[in-house]
């Protein structure tokens, strides 16, 4: 994955259309920073920086999980730069929705401790440490409660065995976006990361189909 910092350093060397741009968010992968200090708003700025400083022309954005949420936020901020969207297990409103499912007592404990140990089988320690401030900041970026003014083609791929983000979220998202060119593709045996061989083939096919269409 391309380091976000490297993308910023080479922002004056924009690649022509047709090139794939990949990057790690601040505090993720090879990018510098502490992920616990990131917020949805800060990560959104990462996407917009790459879109503005590295990419040329309209783009097909591909986002998975929280990256899918950020993909939507970027499309709302730069509609003229977006040709289409491809989301995999899009975790729109994730922190807020998951927090709201907790009991009053659990919410109060998290607020007092200032941190939430969010269980996940994908985390090294069995949970992710999410600062309470991150949850509250995420409320400023929620999308699913109202129509989403995105009009470009949208493709949503979701595994029905996903235990982190239920596939119903993709159906809700499809209903919320204004675009009439929306497909939801469900994989009965697919899990959250959708990284099986057939899952990856489906993702590549979906992107290729959009490129031919556009």
Automatic annotation (TrEMBL):
<feature type="domain" description="Peptidase S9 prolyl oligopeptidase catalytic">
    <location>
        <begin position="61"/>
        <end position="187"/>
    </location>
</feature>
<protein>
    <submittedName>
        <fullName>Mycophenolic acid acyl-glucuronide esterase, mitochondrial isoform X3</fullName>
    </submittedName>
</protein>
<keyword id="KW-0378">Hydrolase</keyword>
<dbReference type="Pfam" id="PF00326">
    <property type="entry name" value="Peptidase_S9"/>
</dbReference>
<dbReference type="InterPro" id="IPR001375">
    <property type="entry name" value="Peptidase_S9_cat"/>
</dbReference>
<dbReference type="GO" id="GO:0008474">
    <property type="term" value="F:palmitoyl-(protein) hydrolase activity"/>
</dbReference>
<dbReference type="GO" id="GO:0004553">
    <property type="term" value="F:hydrolase activity, hydrolyzing O-glycosyl compounds"/>
</dbReference>
<comment type="similarity">
    <text>Belongs to the AB hydrolase superfamily.</text>
</comment>
<dbReference type="InterPro" id="IPR052382">
    <property type="entry name" value="ABHD10_acyl-thioesterase"/>
</dbReference>
<dbReference type="GO" id="GO:0008236">
    <property type="term" value="F:serine-type peptidase activity"/>
</dbReference>
<dbReference type="InterPro" id="IPR029058">
    <property type="entry name" value="AB_hydrolase_fold"/>
</dbReference>
<dbReference type="GO" id="GO:0006508">
    <property type="term" value="P:proteolysis"/>
</dbReference>
<dbReference type="GO" id="GO:0005739">
    <property type="term" value="C:mitochondrion"/>
</dbReference>
